[in-house]
Design goal:
With 725 residues, the chain is of the alpha+beta class. The strands form 4 sheets. Strands 12-11-10-9-18-19 form a 6-stranded mixed beta sheet. Helix 3 (45-58) crosses helix 5, helix 16 (425-459) crosses helix 17 and helix 17 (466-491) packs antiparallel against helix 18. Mean pLDDT is 86; it is low at 1-8 and 15-20.
């Protein structure tokens, strides 16, 4: 009683005294953690800038241009307030982040306005094209492809003609070289919408690349006759550079053979036209597909190789070493090499991002700053987002900067090596080899963990043996392949490139052998369904928090970083139909069966992977529960009550439609619904697909169907052609 009265009815005095130091200690500890973030606030500005751009692309409709102007004005006001108002560091920082968020939204809207150009109307019309071949694009499933700058397109006025068209060619002949003026008849369409609801929107990438149409050449490609007419100087220069790149590609393939020269050309000029599909699949299954695309690895090797040579050249000459700053000369040389490689590669988006990051590192050396740091990475990310805000939606940007942030954070946390005195040389060699091996394992592990969620969400493929495959391949590509390839390309005009190219070929053979070994192991590649759309942004923010926050509190971001892995998956649909009704696939257990395997094959593959299903063709076995003929699939007794009809021939359509009406509950039509009564409860025809795009359907226990359409998730945006909105 006395103790209770003395404490005013609260807990005993000794308990309060024991608790007080712990609370005070927690506050002090949190204060120390906050102090660790001093000077790191700027690392979050590109994150806020990217979030603003992502917010724009997530909108269901296109905002008016005034929204962009108001956003930029708000960004300026918020930034000035943060700099001039007497606010604390936390409040000022919050205002700056809000300013970057508003700026990202406004810049993304202005970028859309800047690149907006005509798009081919839908309908699949056959038109005659006269155009200049700007470049040879990466081949598709239908064959080789070229990028065209149209001069005329039949039936379209100059104001309706797209700036660029990507055309697939028929036949085994090599595509025409850049700078060639051609004419051909082609089946033209706008860039295709998402292949399934929530899938990646390649039409958006085409929009920002200036590609307003895709097509299939229906005959041979002929040289255009008549006067060529005046061309803009920028287009002439672009075609001249691309013609040089294509000529170098052909020479590498002719000299090294298709198996070696195709990959060598892809790594040098960016042209993947000669890389055999089997080689691509083996590299992808082994987790080495990043070698094909020119990206950070290639830029780092080229820039680092030239940087090392330049620094060595200055160091071996006492006269130069006393008069020139070796590191700065080497940094300038590395930057020139990066820019030259960027031009030689054709400037694809991954190469541009990697080039900006490498140039930022070299600029840091020129300004006597630390080259490899999170500040340098933040600067590079800011530059990329200011140039191309749409990069925030691209898997390459997400993966490259997540991996680089993880590697730089690992470098910051790596303990400084202890330099021992009078250590015997053999011991030093063993210690160095052990440290290098450990560093290689941790680097590959960190990069793989950082990029894994994005690879899973976007590509639905997990290379089980990617870590050991990369550990074995990186020394080959870093120490042998890329340096030898660079020397071979430089010395070939002098007639001295055979020896370096031979060594480069041996490096490619080693890479192919590594890929074949790991791709051939049991379970080398797994297909995993995509997580819900919200999971990837949460994962990205969690990874960034782990990398950018300093101290043990960074691990608060770990549960967020695992969102893609932990988020529950939606049960796979029973039926998928392409955006034009021309192709469909049905689920059969843990696999999917494409009803028309030769039509929209890519779309069916994307859909099946996103839902974690293995795709197979009807030729691999009968379609469960369906009887498939040339123009339609209809249900058999006991099968799913679904009929898919893809013909538009009136007589055949009427016959198949009558048969489907008597046996199916759901009918999918590529064309318009025929007149007359029908016993089916649900009928989808071209009107539905024109407004809704591709669709996924689930059969509910009560016999009804639930549909998820792609177009409502996509929204009415400028990159959606009229009729696809």
């Amino acid at each position: 009683m006395g103790e209770t009265a003395a404490t005013g009815g609260g807990p005993p005095l000794n308990m309060r005294l024991a608790r007080a130091p712990s609370l005070r200690g927690a506050r002090l500890w949190l204060g120390r953690q906050a102090d660790l973030q001093a000077g790191r606030f700027g690392l979050w500005t590109p994150v806020a800038l990217g979030c603003g751009a992502a917010l724009y692309f997530a909108l269901p409709g296109e905002p008016v241009l005034g929204v962009a102007i108001l956003s930029l004005l708000a960004a300026v006001v918020l930034a000035l307030t943060a700099m001039r108002a007497p606010l604390g560091p936390a409040a000022s920082g919050a205002l700056v982040l809000l300013a970057c968020l508003a700026a990202g939204l406004g810049l993304a809207r202005l970028r859309t306005e800047q690149v907006q150009a005509p798009i081919i109307p839908p309908g699949g019309d056959v038109r005659r094209i006269e155009a200049w071949v700007v470049d040879v694009a990466s081949p598709g499933q239908g064959g080789s492809r070229v990028l065209l700058a149209p001069v005329t397109v039949a039936g379209l006025s100059p104001d309706e003609t797209p700036i660029r068209i990507r055309l697939t060619l028929r036949g085994p002949e090599a595509p025409p070289a850049p700078g060639t003026r051609i004419t051909t008849r082609a089946l033209l369409n706008p860039p295709p919408p998402p292949s399934s609801p929530g899938a990646y929107d390649f039409a958006r990438d085409s929009f920002f690349d200036g590609v307003g149409g895709v097509g299939l050449a229906l005959g041979g490609v002929e040289a255009a006759t008549g006067p060529p007419g005046a061309l803009p100087w920028g287009l002439r220069l672009q075609m001249q550079v691309n013609a040089f790149r294509w000529d170098l590609t052909r020479r590498l393939v002719d000299r090294m053979g298709v198996e070696r020269g195709g990959l060598a050309a892809a790594m040098t000029t960016g042209h993947e036209a000669f890389v055999p599909p089997a080689q691509v699949e083996a590299l992808r299954a082994a987790g080495l597909a990043h070698i094909i695309s020119i990206s950070g690895l290639h830029m780092a090797i080229v820039g680092g190789f030239v940087y090392g040579l330049a620094r060595l050249a200055v160091a071996v000459s006492p006269w130069l070493a006393l008069r020139l700053p070796g590191r700065k000369v080497a940094a300038a040389s590395g930057m020139i090499a990066i820019l030259a490689y960027l031009v030689l590669s054709g400037g694809p988006d991954p190469a541009v991002r990697a080039g900006v990051t490498a140039c930022a590192a070299f600029c840091a050396i020129l300004w006597d700053r630390r080259a490899i740091s999170l500040r340098t990475l933040a600067l590079a990310a800011t530059v990329v987002l200011l140039m191309r805000p749409e990069a925030v939606t691209q898997p390459g940007f997400q993966m490259s900067f997540a991996a680089t942030a993880a590697l730089v954070a690992l470098a910051e946390a790596w303990p400084a090596p202890v330099r021992e005195i009078s250590t015997p040389l053999p011991v030093r060699i063993l210690q160095g080899a052990g440290a290098a091996a450990l560093a290689g394992v941790l680097i590959s592990l960190a990069a793989g963990l950082a990029t894994g969620p994005f690879a899973l969400q976007h590509f639905n493929r997990i290379a089980v043996y990617g870590l050991p495959a990369n550990l074995l391949s990186e020394p080959v590509s870093t120490l042998l392949l890329m340096p030898a390839l660079a020397l071979g390309v430089l010395l070939t005009p002098l007639g001295l490139g055979d020896v370096p190219l031979w060594f480069a070929g041996q490096g490619i053979e080693a890479l192919n052998a590594i890929a074949r070994i790991f791709a051939g192991l049991p379970g080398a590649e797994r297909v995993i369904a995509s997580a819900p759309p919200w999971a990837l942004p949460v994962t990205f923010l969690g990874l960034l928090f782990i990398c950018l926050w300093k101290g043990p509190l960074r691990w608060i971001g770990l549960p967020l970083a695992l969102a893609v892995y932990l988020a529950p998956r939606t049960p796979a649909p029973d039926l998928w139909v392409a955006h034009d009704g021309a192709s469909a696939a049905v689920r059969a257990g843990d696999s999917a069966v494409a009803l028309r395997p030769d039509v929209r094959r890519f779309g069916a593959e994307v859909w099946s992977r996103r839902r974690g299903l293995a795709l197979r063709a009807p030729t691999d076995g009968p379609v469960p529960g369906l009887a498939c003929r040339t123009y339609a699939c209809t249900p058999v007794p006991g099968g799913p009550p679904v009929a898919v009809i893809w013909t538009r021939r009136p007589g055949v359509l009427q016959r198949e439609y009558r048969l489907a009406c008597s046996s199916a509950d759901l009918i999918v039509l590529r064309g318009r619904r025929p007149a007359g009564p029908c016993g089916a409860r649900f009928i989808l025809d071209e009107t539905d697909f024109r407004s809704g795009g591709s669709v996924e359907l689930w059969r509910l226990p009560d016999g009804r169907w639930r549909a998820l359409w792609a177009q409502p998730m996509r929204g009415a945006r400028p990159w959606a052609a009229p009729g696809y909105q």
